[in-house]
Amino acid sequence: MKHITSRDNPLYKELKHLATSSQARRQAGRTLLDGVHLCQGYLQYRGAPPLCLVGEGAVAHPEVADILAQCGAPPTQVIVLPDALFGALSQVEHGIGLLFVVDTPQLELPAALTESAVLLDNLQDPGNLGSILRSAAAAGIKQVFCSAGTSFAWSPKVLRAGMGAHFVLTIHENVDLAALMRGASVPVLATSSHVEQTIYQLDLRQPVAWLFGHEGQGVADDLLALARHRVMIPHRGPMESLNVAACAAVCLFEQVRQLEN
Amino acid sequence: MKHITSRDNPLYKELKHLATSSQARRQAGRTLLDGVHLCQGYLQYRGAPPLCLVGEGAVAHPEVADILAQCGAPPTQVIVLPDALFGALSQVEHGIGLLFVVDTPQLELPAALTESAVLLDNLQDPGNLGSILRSAAAAGIKQVFCSAGTSFAWSPKVLRAGMGAHFVLTIHENVDLAALMRGASVPVLATSSHVEQTIYQLDLRQPVAWLFGHEGQGVADDLLALARHRVMIPHRGPMESLNVAACAAVCLFEQVRQLEN
């Protein structure tokens, strides 16, 4: 273990920049996993991280000690920080002082859309994105494709809301969704409140790709036109739409219900 | 219309306090509805507000003008503010400058739980609470009961996420959920990941009450013990749980599916 005690340490300054700047994270292709739960998930599904940061007060914590034992040798570098320095890197209030610094995946696009997937067009809210990733992972979806306008999937807020879903999914970002949809060999379904067909009328026991859009404006018209089916979730009350993450959960678990029954 | 131009105006100071302090809102029994969408919803379902605030730059906006025409006479007081003063009251960035100040409902508890409802135990996140209220309203639920530890339903963040659901629901706060459950004449269902029975095995064509809990800890054990059924949502992937608002959406719309089919 290495100790850093000064705010002027060059590595600490680099980490602080990474912790506080979304642009820095995108440019470096690196992000921070904040807290025990996310770090455990990373270890389980992705293995040892390049860099592990621990607050002095957390070194003896049993869950942290267990994680350090798993990644306390090269290639992982473990750095211990005074709690005040650690706190400036973490967004979790009253958390246990543990952070992994990991590389965000650089992925090749698959040649075609051939299995069940989630497509996200211009989705804005980090909490919604994380919730959708979590629902997709729980529903057995493996592939997620995000348009260039969608929130950065590897930001600390999205990671926290995803609760580890990032590590079991393949998340493609900056994807040309129109091109992907044109070449898809599975039907793409988009939800809309202006159609008659309901999700319950579709046969979802086959692979399908679900397309969800912007919180206010929904899916862009050009993409909606490329979808094989436009479907709605029937409502019984006066409210005409759901939060997009709630909508995604209903759709993905209707597919689970049909597959399980 | 009345104009306020000074930050030192006593009414403006009172409004600023209301806009920035959750405690002030609870004490006054008043809250702010921020933006055109929420104000339209309030007018549609609850009628004219006691107080309407408009930024100078928004007075001529067609949607705002339409709303002012509907509530521009007593008992509504309309106050026009310079945009800088208005901005300090609003949490919506780049919004259209319109706010209603309204009384939060003071409700009597119904004698017993006799119809479909949502019960929330210690739910923390305003976005989750708003999303659940929106899903409940869309699923045709009319009654929501929140424990004392649950986020304040009438805070600006919850109102924004609720997208008007507040105005079509009856939301009881600070409720003793254990007492309510003991006297319930409809079955109370709680979701749990440690049980065998799935939501798809239940007959949901009758009224039921759904109990959802804290984001991290779930429903408290004493309440879980009082639930008629503990049920799970089957998963197909390695993630073991959903975001609570996603979970609520899946449950509430499984009930809608059974009722509609």
From TrEMBL, chains A, B:
Coiled coil: none annotated. InterPro entries: Alpha/beta_knot_MTases, Ribosomal_eL30-like_sf, rRNA_Methyltransferase, SpoU_MeTrfase, tRNA_m1G_MTases_N. Residues 117-253 form the tRNA/rRNA methyltransferase SpoU type domain. This is TrmH family RNA methyltransferase. It comes from Undibacterium arcticum. Keywords: Methyltransferase, Transferase. One of its GO terms (biological process) is methylation. SUPFAM superfamilies: alpha/beta knot, L30e-like. Pfam families: SpoU_methylase (PF00588). One of its GO terms (molecular function) is methyltransferase activity.
